[in-house]
Amino acid sequence: MVEDWQHGGFGLYIHWPFCEAKCPYCDFNSHVVRKIDQSRWLRAYLGELDRVASETSDRVLNSVFFGGGTPSLMDPDVVAAILVRVRKLWRISNDFEVTLEANPGSVDAGRFVAYRAGGVNRVSMGIQALNDRDLSRLGRIHTVEEARKAFEIGRKAFDRVSFDLIYARQDQTLQDWTAELNEALSMAIDHLSLYQLTIETGTAFGDRYERGKLRGLPEDDLAADMYEATQEICASAGMDPYEVSNYAEKGSESRHNLIYWRYGDYAGVGPGAHARLTMDGQRYAIENWRMPEKWLEHAEAGNGESLRNVVPQVDQATEFLLMGLRLTEGVDLSRYRALSEVELSEDRITYLQDIGTISIDRQRLRVLPKGRMVLNSVLAELLVD
Ligand SMILES: C[S@@+](CC[C@H](N)C(=O)[O-])C[C@H]1O[C@@H](n2cnc3c(N)ncnc32)[C@H](O)[C@@H]1O
Ligand code: SF4
């Protein structure tokens, strides 16, 4: 029998938890430290890879994703050594994808060529904004000119370079954003990630917001208009809105992220990395120690994991929907039924179809553009008991 995860594939996430500066909006597991002993970190990553592979080495690996933090601060030799070990531990798929996230403030040509020589074949760059005032408000360490230069270096070294922008920023009008998006599309190669600014509690922006000091954020209506315009403009430029915040030419989607959204299995190595692994007929949710030093000590002692829980089948069905409905391709309902003991409510489905937020066609349930803007309420409607 085909285990459920095989519909999505198998990937490996590696978390590098350090940045040159902490951006005020960011609640990722990222830390600024003065000195990093990269060879010590490499040994810990290699030990963890061996441990994870001892449970999964019979699989074909589809992708590796170096995320962060700022993985473009990793020594190219460290990245290369990790990839040598990965190739030793797993069989690799023909279309093996290896992505590395880069901050334009820490890019130089030699470093990028070395990443490519070490086996990286895709880069995702955090450009965030295409004007200097907003970059500085976002606390970024680079200017637009530096970001453009970094992007040029990236495209010379790699065939596949994506970049991230954050929109719905302070004082941004719909016109500002569509002009900036058109500029971004003229630079883009085949993939873009476009995120609405989220104010996360516990970040510097979160604190400022609570004190009423973060002014000029768009009202919900304007943010929704920006989202709608983003979908339309990208689609007409040939960048298919294949996921809530991701746009790509056909065939250039992030294969690694598709594993998450198609609810495949993924191993996670590094501080705070999450994993979902199916072993001996059970699916496990796994987490690693979040604080870098703590993870390092545990990894050196033989195991960086802080948690390993079985995911009950009914929760798997929910996770499958939560992830899959982010994708324009939607989900296969027969896969949902195989996981879930309860059917989705016919009444609710009919209601959501009537108001134009979902569609069902040949066993595929999809969220339509109108529903994608209110995805959380669509999911709540489908999943509530
Ligand atoms: C790990 S970072 C990418 C690489 C690198 N650290 C950088 O920032 O250049 C992941 C991406 O998440 C997005 N992001 C982080 N926090 C966000 C927030 N609060 N709202 C919207 N997007 C956010 C940014 O676009 C960022 O590029
Ligand atoms: S957005 Fe990127 S560079 Fe900024 S703190 Fe977060 S992970 Fe680091």
TrEMBL record:
Coiled coil stretches, renumbered: none
One GO CC term, this protein: cytoplasm
Start and end residues of each Radical SAM core domain: 4-240
InterPro entries: Coproporphyrinogen-III_oxidase (IPR034505), Elp3/MiaA/NifB-like_rSAM (IPR006638), HemN_C (IPR010723), HemW-like (IPR004559), rSAM (IPR007197), rSAM_sf (IPR058240)
Main localisation: cytoplasm
Location in or out of the cell: Cytoplasm
One of the record's GO molecular function terms: coproporphyrinogen oxidase activity
Gene Ontology process terms (BP): porphyrin-containing compound biosynthetic process
Key word Glycosyltransferase present: no
Highest rank taxon of the organism: Bacteria
Keywords recorded for this protein, A-Z: 4Fe-4S, Chaperone, Cytoplasm, Heme, Iron, Iron-sulfur, Metal-binding, S-adenosyl-L-methionine
NCBIfam families: hemN_rel (TIGR00539)
Protein family (similarity comment): Belongs to the anaerobic coproporphyrinogen-III oxidase family. HemW subfamily.
Function: Probably acts as a heme chaperone, transferring heme to an unknown acceptor. Binds one molecule of heme per monomer, possibly covalently. Binds 1 [4Fe-4S] cluster. The cluster is coordinated with 3 cysteines and an exchangeable S-adenosyl-L-methionine.
Name of the featured protein: Heme chaperone HemW
Organism per entry: Shimia abyssi
